[in-house]
Write a structure and sequence with these properties.
Strand order of the largest sheet: 5-4-3-6-2-1-7-8
CATH superfamily of the largest domain: MutL, C-terminal domain, regulatory subdomain
Distance between the termini: 68 Å
CATH class of the largest domain: Alpha Beta
Number of helices: 17
Number of domains: 3
Number of strands: 24
CATH architecture of the largest domain: 2-Layer Sandwich
CATH topology of the largest domain: Ribosomal Protein S8, Chain: A, domain 1
Shape: globular
Length: 603
C-alpha cells in the first residue's frame, strides 16, 4: 500500500499556525504591541484602517533589529526570548513562542522597517503570503515599524468570518486598553481612519486609568496595596455604589500581562461581600506580581490563561486585601438598596431632641367592623381624610385576597371576554375563547417598539426633532469611537450630531419617538449591545439600534398599567408581524387552553 503521510509545505503550515495566533485584526494588534514593548519602546503608535482589515501598523522607538534579525523574525520558532525549555518557566517578556510574525506574514501583506540606534541605515522588507518580495537598505528612524495590510487576503473564507467594523474595532480597543493599562510608563497613540482615538502620555497607573476611561473614573477608585512573601497586589477597585449591571472594566494583570481568571474574579467579588446590589458587578484594575517560576503561561495560544502553583493561598490573600481596602477607606455596606431618602430625618432636625410629643386619645367605643367611624387612635397631627372602609388601612399592592381576586376574575371573564388583569406589575392575564393568555408586559412592549422603530427607519423617512439647546454627553474615547462608527446609522433613525470630541458628543436633533431625557440611556444601551456582540455579521446596525431603543424605552417590570394601557398593549402586540417573541428571541406570551387548565386540577 502506498505511503499517505506527507510533510506540509511551509506556507500551508504557516497558515495553519496562523489560525491559532491570528483570529482577527485584534490578534495582530496584540502581538505587534507586545513585540514593541519587549523591544524597550517608550513610545508606541497604532494606526488602523477599516477596523484593521485594511491596515494595522505599529511604530515604536525601541531598539530595532539588525539585518539578520529582521529577516529571521519571520521564520517559525525564531525567538530571542528563550534558549531552552527551562526558560519557558522563567519568562519576563510578552511574546516568546516565535510564531507571531511568521503567522501574520502567512496571511497578509507585511512591510517591515527597522533600524538599531548605533546603525546609520536600516532594513526594509516586504513579504506577501510568507514569500519575501524584497529586502533593501533604507534611511529610517530608530526603532521598528510593521505594517500589516489586507489581512486574510489569501484566505477569503476566513475573512468572511470577520464581523462588522464596529465589532472588530471594539476588539482592537479592548486589546489596546489591556496593553496600555499594563504599561502606564509607556506613551501610546491610537489612530483609526485618521481620527485620533487615544493619546496617552507617560504617567502613573491612576492617571492612565482615568485617561482611558474618562475623568469621572477618578472619584470611583479605591487603592489596593498588599505585599506578602508569595504575591504583591497593587491597583484599584471601584467603590460599590459604582457597580454596573454589565461586566466590564475588570482587569487582572500578572507580571504586567493581562489574564482572565474566573477563580480570582470570584475572590474579588467575595471581597465585596454585602456591599453590592444584587445583579451588579464591581470594576477593578488589579496588578499581581509573583515569581515567574510559580506560574505557567504557556497553556493557551493567546497567553491569557495562567496556572498558579498556590491558587488557594492567592485566593485568600486577594479576597482579604480587597475587603481590607474597602474597610480602610470607609466604604460601608448599603443595608437597604431601596431606601427612600424622603423618609430620612432632615439635617436641620437631627440634633433636636425637644420635639413635642403628640397627645394620644382613645375612643373606647371604636368598632373596627363598622364603617365610617373615627379611628381608635388619633393625634393632634392626624389628617382629616376618612377612609372608605377600615380595610383600607391594611391595603398592599394587591387590594384583593386570593378568593376575592379569583371571584373578580371569574366574574369579568364571564361577562367581558378579552378583559385583562395585571399580575405583580409584571404580567398581563387576558381571557381568550380557548382559555387564557399570560403576557410578559416588558417583553411584549419591546416587540411592539422594535417593529415600530424598524418600520420608521426602513419604510418611512426618519423624523427628527430639533433641540432648543444641544445636549452634550460625556463618554470614554473608546465609546466615542464606537458611536462615530455608527453615526450614519444613528442619523437614519433621526439623530443629528453637532460635534464629536475625544470625550463627548453633542446632539442637536433626536428621533420624534424619544425624549431628550432618554438620549443618554439609549446610547449607553446601544454601546452595551455592541460590546456584547449582539449584532452578527448578517445583521445591520439599524437592527441593533431598533433592539437597543426598544429595550431602553419599553415599560419595565414594576410599572402599573391602567386598563386602557393593558388593552392597548395586548392589541398592539398581536398586531405585530412576530408577536410571539421579543427582539432578543424570548417568548412574549404563553397560552393555556381550557384542557390544559383542567388537566392542572384533575391530575
Amino acid at each position: 500500500m502506498a505511503d499517505i503521510i506527507q510533510l506540509l509545505p511551509d506556507h500551508v503550515a504557516n497558515q495553519i499556525a496562523a489560525g491559532e495566533v491570528v483570529q482577527r485584526p485584534a490578534s495582530v494588534v496584540k502581538e505587534l504591541l507586545e513585540n514593541a514593548i519587549d523591544a524597550g519602546a517608550t513610545s508606541i503608535k497604532l494606526l488602523l484602517k477599516d477596523a484593521g482589515k485594511t491596515l494595522v501598523q505599529v511604530i515604536d522607538n525601541g531598539k530595532g533589529m539588525s539585518v539578520t534579525d529582521a529577516r529571521l523574525s519571520f521564520e517559525r520558532h525564531a525567538t530571542s526570548k528563550i534558549r531552552n525549555a527551562d526558560d519557558l518557566f522563567n519568562l519576563n517578556t510578552k511574546g516568546f513562542r516565535g510564531e507571531a510574525l511568521a503567522s501574520i506574514a502567512a496571511i497578509a501583506h507585511v512591510e517591515l522597517k527597522t533600524k538599531q540606534e548605533n546603525e546609520e541605515l536600516g532594513t526594509h522588507i516586504k513579504i506577501e503570503g510568507s514569500k519575501v518580495v524584497s529586502q533593501e537598505v533604507i534611511t529610517t528612524a530608530k526603532g521598528t515599524s510593521i505594517a500589516v495590510k489586507n489581512l486574510f487576503y489569501n484566505i477569503p473564507a476566513r475573512r468572511n468570518f470577520l464581523k462588522s467594523d464596529t465589532i472588530e474595532t471594539r476588539h482592537i480597543i479592548d486589546e489596546f486598553q489591556r496593553v496600555a493599562l499594563a504599561h502606564p510608563t509607556i506613551a501610546f497613540l491610537l489612530h483609526h481612519n485618521n481620527n485620533e482615538v487615544y493619546h496617552l502620555k507617560e504617567s502613573n497607573l491612576r492617571k492612565r486609568i482615568v485617561a482611558i476611561f474618562s475623568a469621572k473614573m477618578n472619584e470611583k477608585l479605591v487603592p489596593i496595596n498588599e505585599h506578602t512573601d508569595i504575591i504583591t497586589i497593587n491597583g484599584f477597585v471601584a467603590k460599590p455604589n459604582f457597580a454596573k449591571k454589565k461586566r466590564g472594566e475588570q482587569f487582572f494583570f500578572v507580571n504586567d500581562r493581562f489574564i482572565k481568571s474566573s477563580y480570582l474574579h470570584h475572590a474579588v467579588v467575595n471581597g465585596f461581600d454585602g456591599l453590592l446590589e444584587h445583579g451588579t458587578h464591581p470594576s477593578y484594575f488589579l496588578y499581581l506580581t509573583v515569581p515567574p517560576n510559580s506560574i505557567d503561561i504557556n497553556i493557551h495560544p493567546t497567553k491569557t490563561e495562567i496556572k498558579f502553583d498556590n491558587e488557594k493561598a492567592l485566593y485568600a490573600i486577594l479576597r482579604a486585601t480587597v475587603k481590607h481596602s474597602l474597610g480602610q477607606y470607609s466604604v460601608a455596606p448599603v443595608l437597604d438598596f431601596n431606601r427612600d431618602a424622603n423618609l430620612d430625618t432632615p439635617y436641620q432636625f437631627q440634633s433636636k431632641t425637644n420635639g413635642a410629643v403628640p397627645k394620644i386619645t382613645v375612643d373606647p367605643n371604636f368598632n373596627p367592623f363598622k364603617t365610617a367611624q373615627q379611628p381608635a387612635f388619633t393625634t393632634n397631627n392626624q389628617y382629616k381624610k376618612e377612609s372608605a372602609s377600615w380595610e383600607a388601612l391594611y391595603t398592599t399592592d394587591n387590594p384583593f385576597d386570593d378568593v376575592q381576586q379569583e371571584e373578580l376574575f371569574h366574574q369579568n371573564t364571564q361577562t367581558d371576554t378579552g378583559k385583562t388583569f395585571q399580575i405583580q406589575k409584571k404580567y398581563l392575564l387576558s381571557s381568550i375563547k380557548s382559555g387564557m393568555v399570560l403576557i410578559h408586559q416588558s417583553l411584549a412592549h419591546q416587540r411592539v417598539l422594535y417593529e415600530d422603530f424598524l418600520a420608521n427607519i426602513t419604510e418611512k423617512e426618519a423624523a427628527s426633532q430639533q433641540l432648543l439647546f444641544p445636549v452634550k454627553i460625556g463618554f470614554s474615547s473608546a465609546e466615542i469611537e464606537i458611536i462615530y462608527t455608527v453615526k450614519s446609522d444613528l442619523e437614519s433613525t433621526g439623530f443629528q450630531f453637532e460635534e464629536f470630541t475625544k470625550d463627548s458628543v453633542t446632539i442637536n436633533g433626536i428621533p420624534t419617538s424619544i425624549t431628550e431625557s432618554q438620549v443618554t440611556k439609549i446610547l449607553e444601551q446601544l454601546l452595551n449591545d455592541i460590546d456584547l456582540e449582539v449584532p452578527d455579521s448578517s445583521f445591520s446596525h439599524v437592527d441593533v439600534m431598533a433592539k437597543s431603543f426598544a429595550k431602553t424605552l419599553a415599560i419595565k417590570t414594576g410599572t402599573q398599567l391602567t386598563e386602557n394601557e393593558q388593552e392597548n398593549l395586548v392589541h398592539n402586540l398581536f398586531s405585530c408581524k412576530e408577536p410571539s417573541v421579543s427582539p432578543t428571541g424570548k417568548p412574549t406570551f404563553k397560552t393555556l387552553t381550557l384542557q390544559e387548565i383542567d388537566h392542572i386540577f384533575n391530575s
